[in-house]
Amino acid sequence: MVNNNAILIICLLFSLTVIGTEAIRCYQCSSDTDPKGEDLCGAYKKFDKEKNIPIECNSEESNMPGTFCVKITHQSPRGFIWDGRWRQVIRRCASVASTGVTGVCNWGVYENGVYWEECSCAHDACNGT
């Protein structure tokens, strides 16, 4: 005879597998991997949603699994490079927010003067703004 606890555990694991099959979809790119002369991740120009597609965060296509989306921006102080400022934008899935809260943006300035901003959100393709 099978133990009732074993049946309960099997049913619980099965239900978690069925429920957890649909994952959030996020844009995934980084401006430092853009081809020379192109701005596919939206560091300097408006992010083009036609040239990028959201990736399911728990699929093999995702560079990092996760349950929410994040957009990270770094920008140098004025005059850091001869053409003014450099910017870097990273859009990806994430599983742990540094603040523990999604749906907000946090920002600050590193000791070297580089501005940073991290925005997290929890619905499909929300890191495209």
UniProtKB/TrEMBL annotation:
The keyword Glycoprotein belongs to this UniProt entry's keyword annotation: yes
Leader sequence segment: 1-23
Compartments it resides in: Membrane
Superkingdom per UniProt: Eukaryota
Predominant subcellular localization, coarse grouping: membrane
Keyword Nucleotide-binding: no
Keywords per UniProt: Glycoprotein, GPI-anchor, Lipoprotein, Membrane, Signal, Transmembrane, Transmembrane helix
Bilayer topology term: Lipid-anchor; GPI-anchor
InterPro entries: QVR-like (IPR031424), Sleep_regulator (IPR050975)
PANTHER family: ATILLA, ISOFORM B-RELATED-RELATED (PTHR33562), PROTEIN QUIVER (PTHR33562:SF27)
Protein name (database record): Protein sleepless
Organism: Xylocopa violacea (Violet carpenter bee)
Lineage, opening ranks: Eukaryota, Metazoa, Ecdysozoa, Arthropoda, Hexapoda
